[in-house]
C-alpha cells in the first residue's frame, strides 16, 4: 500500500480561527480528517505532521521518507525561507506537491516566492482545503502510473 506524507508548517494549527477570510473556516483537524477519508477511498495511507518548528518537520520527513511514495507540503511561512525543509524534500527523493489554501501569487509580494516550488512536481494554490485532496489524488495516481 502506498503511503504519502502530509506536512503542515507554522501557524496551520490555528486554521479555522486565523483570518478566515483568507484561510477559510475549516480547521486543520477537519482537513486531516478529510485527507484520511479520501486516502481510505483511494486505498492509500497518509502520515500527517504539523509543527511550528522547521526542524520537527525535517525530522519527520527524514524518519518517514524511506517508507513513503510522495509528500504533500503546506509549509506556511517556511514556503518563503525554509531552506532546511527544502533540502530535506530534495534528499527524500520523492515527488512533492506544494499546497496553499490561499493564492500566494495574489497576495503580498513577499509571498510570491516559494523555495519549495522548484523541487516540487507541482503546486496547488488558492483552492482552499480541497487542494490537499487534489494533491493526494494526484500523488496516488502518480505512484500507480509513474510520471507518464
Summarize the structure.
The protein has helices at residues 20-23, 28-42, 54-64, 78-81, 83-92, 130-145, and strands spanning 3-8, 45-50, 70-74, 96-100, 122-125.
Order of helices and strands: EHHEHEHHEEH
Overall pLDDT: 92
* Share of residues in strands: 15-25%
The low-confidence runs, each spanning 5 or more residues with pLDDT under 50, are none
**What would you give as the CATH superfamily?**
Dehydroquinase, class II
Helical proportion, percent range: 40-55%
- Gap from first CA to last CA: 20 Å
Strand order of the largest sheet: 2-1-3-4-5
Number of strands: 5
Number of domains: 1
CATH architecture: 3-Layer(aba) Sandwich
CATH classification class: Alpha Beta
* Count of helix runs: 6
Within the CATH hierarchy, at the fold level, what is the topology?
Rossmann fold
What class would the helix/strand composition place it in?
Answer: alpha/beta
Rg value: 14 Å
Biggest beta sheet summary? 5 strands, parallel
Global morphology = globular
Amino acid at each position: 500500500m502506498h503511503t504519502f506524507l502530509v506536512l503542515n508548517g507554522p501557524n496551520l494549527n490555528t486554521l479555522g480561527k486565523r483570518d478566515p477570510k483568507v484561510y477559510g473556516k475549516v480547521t486543520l483537524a477537519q482537513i486531516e480528517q478529510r485527507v484520511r477519508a479520501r486516502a481510505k477511498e483511494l486505498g492509500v495511507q497518509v502520515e500527517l505532521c504539523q509543527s511550528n518548528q522547521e526542524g520537527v518537520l525535517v525530522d519527520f520527513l527524514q524518519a518517514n521518507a524511506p517508507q513513503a511514495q510522495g509528500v504533500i507540503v503546506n509549509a506556511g511561512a517556511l514556503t518563503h525561507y525554509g531552506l532546511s525543509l527544502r533540502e530535506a524534500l530534495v534528499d527524500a527523493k520523492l515527488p512533492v506537491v506544494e499546497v496553499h489554501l490561499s493564492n500566494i501569487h495574489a497576495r503580498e509580494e513577499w509571498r510570491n516566492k516559494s523555495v519549495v516550488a522548484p523541487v516540487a512536481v507541482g503546486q496547488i494554490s488558492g483552492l482552499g482545503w480541497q487542494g490537499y485532496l487534489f494533491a493526494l489524488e494526484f500523488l496516488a495516481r502518480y505512484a500507480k502510473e509513474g510520471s507518464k
